[in-house]
Amino acid sequence: MMQSRMKLLGLTCNLPGGMLLAVTMLLFTVPVSGCAQVEPGVAPSSTPVLLHFAMLVDGTGELLEGQEILVESGVIVAIGDGLAERYPAALRVNLEGLTALPGLIDAHVHMTYGFYGRSHGDAWKQLLQETPAPQRLVAAVRNAARTLESGVTTARDLFALDGVDFYLRELIEQGVVPGPRLFLSGKGIHPMVMPPQAQGTQAERIASLSQRAAEVAASGADWLKIFATTGTASDLSGEQVYFYPEISAATNVAHANGLKVAVHAYGASAVPDAIRAGVDSIEHAVDVDDVTLAAWAASGIAYVPTIDHNRYYADHREEYGFDPQAEHELRDFTARNVEMLRRAHAAGVPIVMGSDAVMSMFGENTRELEWFVKAGMSNAEVLQSATVNGARLLGQQDRLGRLAPGFAADIVAVQGQPLHDIEALTRHVVWVMKNGEVVVDNRTAP
User: Can you point out the beta strands (E) in 104-259?
Assistant: First the structure.
């Protein structure tokens, strides 16, 4: 922690004064939940480290031969047995009794959605109207640490205001605070932040969305997010807002500038237009018909179901001011979401895990995978959704999502065997390495 504090004092990352002060206060006065408890004696990442596990499970869902992983300079160098003889200078770390997996990928989070203290019964109002950007950055630091504790070492953040997500990413990349590597969309295209085009002509809407796509690309984002329908925790309507001409125009601009495109699509209405426009992922969708599912599977576009956030909102309805009827609708939507996943998986649509974590949900990111099992996916397929499939979606399939030589040393150790019991992965993460550095170690925690 002291090293992080000293880095912060010398940081020149263009943080506005209020945000820099807020994070400084956090680091000097508040213990960051999930901050790395690095094993004493573990050397810097340039020194070879030999990790010994009970077993190794790759992101493909296959059990690997051998029990040892050699890590050097943040990269996996070798996997097998008897590596100590080949690398006698390596520092040995005994993780016997634990199963190693690749660092997980959460393809849908809102890391900056949070505030000081507890909800007073209307969390969204508290966030949007009462919580300034510096406080949201402090909350984001906390959320990032909790995400690491769940075994997630990479995340895609899909919508944030005031550039807070970019400040968070820089703090993480500078090593000031712990957190997953982030792929960002910034504000994206949302009627809330782009009101004029919602009432304009189609030509005006196309021009407006194209301009916003170019602005997002220039901001340093990795993704463009298009809110093509209504739909939130308190509004499950899924009414289409943007249609094929606008979605296609914005997607073309994004792709031409090296960005990928995610489409928010509650319900089924916007899915055909999103597929036709050639986007890269579709979030939330339910009740899609069989013909559209077949086209979706043929397109190779990823489906990010975000099932568990509905359970979370229902369980925490008092934090959001939801009445019993809203809770009932959320649980009903969860069931529809599970059925949609079952049908999408059967049709051959690529499935990627995304929690849609907000507020107090961070740390529960991977509970999404338990619903995947309930939808009929095998444990190996479930693991793929949070590793190799997520890496492919992010364009990182040659670097992330696998336990293999040449891949980033993102490694998660769990109690149990996740190929037999998915809760070994979702409830029993013990130790996490990111880029060759230990960022979570709860082996001696009470």
Answer: 104-109, 152-157, 181-184, 223-227
